[in-house]
Design brief:
By secondary structure, the chain is α/β, with parallel strands linked by helices. It has one domain: FAD/NAD(P)-binding domain (3-Layer(bba) Sandwich), CATH 3.50.50. 25% of the residues lie in helices and 22% in strands. The protein is built from 13 helices and 26 strands. The strands form 8 sheets. Strands 1, 2, 11, 12, 13, 14 and 26 form a 7-stranded mixed beta sheet that branches. The chain has a 7-stranded mixed beta sheet with strand order 6-7-19-20-21-18-24. The two termini are 27 Å apart.
């Protein structure tokens, strides 16, 4: 090994930055944090929240394509940045803790100890470190959306409640003024003043976890990187996100044995669930050309949202609509759609989708992007498509309310000719997008779950000294934006690791 540390954290993103910073609070241990991209520190493109849209498609973006979709948008790309702070450095900073009902669902699925009571202290730790502000209601077009929703019968909410119910409101963002409060900003900056026992290695890509298959069983002993090998005397924690964490495990010989053998990868630990259970929030798009100039430049131009129940039998919202005030440019509107400089958007998304996909390796070469197949809108009951169709129709109904109607010049997308349910649903599926919330590919579960990859302490099954901590461990999708929950996973992981060390 070229260097050795007590802990090696792979991935300096939303959860990984937190894991490394918290472990390094114990000055008696040494921690290495590996990040494939550069630092975000001092980079205004990243730190200024209003620049979020310029990062998609930049040189920092993996721009992961997806496999041809049976019922969804094959042209869709997943934007994943290589940069310190990960997704928290290029998202829209919408700040929701996981609802109580979702954490109860996690626990019921076998995630013992991940219920709302157990997770609450870790959310409080995150919110004690990551500054969150409520958006000021200064955007007149967004204010018209909020008023229109109330005219349509939705109550005004503050979104300070941990359990969003039906209603509309101004979002809460993890920002300080116009500067994002990513995990790297909140836990690592300034990097030059970090304690000497924490070494941040940017521009360093992990190629595989090094697994020792000794007489006592398999154990992670380090990480091979583009700059040599690093030893881990105690543990390796993988926090590369829901697309790259399973990829790294597979490249390390940890995953479905038959798939690995077909690619010529030696099987270190057969684990069939790695890369399975890919879940995501699918998103539809409705865009209007505005009849007057649309205010921009407030915070990040997506400052309000609505939750709704499309099925009266459900007790919690199954639909969320984000409202945006930004131009309908060729960079963001569906291909071939009309464009307009003055425009506003509604993007319905399915809060708890039931469709599941998978991630596999394209080859044994770490430089190759993985094969990503989200299988949008393929759940057997048709739940996701029904919710999305209801969301598209609700968006149009909101635009017809008095408060917002005055802002409407013309519906650009889907367009006035797309009227019947079949055509509207097809448009939503084939031109829709994603909220960029992939999760579940290294699922957390109990001992009776054959496809669980990590146990309730985030330990990878069959490999000592190896954990995963990021959105890939989600047992099920949560009904809100996922960033704060990923941060909570990082806080919880650090405590679990320290508890093992004490024991």
């Amino acid at each position: 090994m070229e260097a050795s540390f007590d802990y090696v954290v792979v991935g300096g993103g939303t959860a990984g930055s937190i894991v490394a910073a918290r472990l390094a609070e114990d000055r008696d241990v040494s921690v290495a944090l590996l990040e494939a991209g550069p630092s975000d520190e001092g980079d205004e493109r990243i730190l200024e929240i209003g620049n979020w849209w310029r990062l998609a498609g930049s040189e920092l973006d993996h721009r992961f394509s997806i496999e041809p979709q049976e019922r969804g948008n094959t042209r869709l790309e997943h934007s994943r940045l290589r940069v310190l702070g990960g997704c928290s450095s290029h998202n829209q900073a919408i700040a929701f803790p996981a609802p109580t009902s979702d954490l109860e669902r996690w626990e019921a699925l076998g995630a013992a100890g991940w219920g709302p009571d157990a997770c609450r202290p870790y959310f409080e730790r995150v919110l004690g470190r990551v500054h969150v502000e409520a958006v000021r209601p200064d955007n007149a077009c967004a204010a018209a959306f909020v008023e229109a929703a109330q005219q349509a019968g939705f109550p005004l909410l503050s979104f300070a409640d941990r359990n969003p119910r039906e209603g509309v409101g101004w979002l809460r963002l993890n920002v300080r003024g116009r500067l994002r409060q990513s995990s790297s900003v909140a836990y690592l900056h300034p990097v030059a003043r970090l304690a000497s026992n924490l070494r941040v290695l940017t521009e360093t890509t992990a190629l595989r976890v090094l697994v020792d298959e000794g007489s006592q069983g398999s154990r992670a002993v380090g990480v091979e990187t583009t700059h040599g090998s690093l030893g881990a005397r105690r543990e390796v924690i993988v926090s590369c996100g829901a697309l790259d964490s399973p990829k790294l495990l597979l490249l390390s010989g940890i995953g479905p044995a038959q798939d690995l053998r077909l690619l010529g990868i030696r099987v270190a630990v057969p684990l069939p669930g790695v890369g399975r259970h890919l879940i995501d929030h699918p998103e539809g798009t409705v865009i209007w050309e505005a009849s007057r100039p649309v205010p921009t430049g407030f915070v990040q131009d997506w400052e309000t949202a609505l939750f709704a129940r499309t099925d009266p039998v459900t007790s919690e919202p199954d639909l969320m609509i984000h409202f945006g005030t930004m131009p309908a440019s060729a960079d963001f509107a569906p291909p071939g759609a009309p464009t307009a400089e003055e425009a506003f958007w509604m993007t319905p998304n399915v809060t708890r989708p039931r469709s599941e996909g998978s991630l596999r390796l394209r080859s044994a070469d770490p430089a190759d992007a993985p094969l990503i197949d989200p299988r949008y809108y393929t759940d057997p009951e048709g739940h996701d498509e029904r919710v999305m169709l209801a969301g598209m129709k609700l968006a149009r109904r909101l635009a017809e309310q008095t408060a917002l109607r005055a802002w409407v010049k013309l519906e650009l997308v889907p367009g006035p000719d797309v009227r019947d349910d079949g055509a509207l649903s097809e448009h939503a599926r084939l031109s829709g997008g994603t909220v960029h919330h992939p999760a579940g590919t290294c699922r957390l579960g109990g001992p009776n779950d054959p496809l669980a990859v990590v146990d309730p302490e985030l330990r990878v099954r069959g490999v000592a000294g190896l954990r995963v901590a990021d959105a890939s461990v989600f047992p099920a999708m949560i009904g809100v934006n996922i960033c704060l929950t990923c941060m909570m996973v990082g806080e919880r992981c650090a405590d679990l690791v320290r508890a093992t060390a004490r024991a």
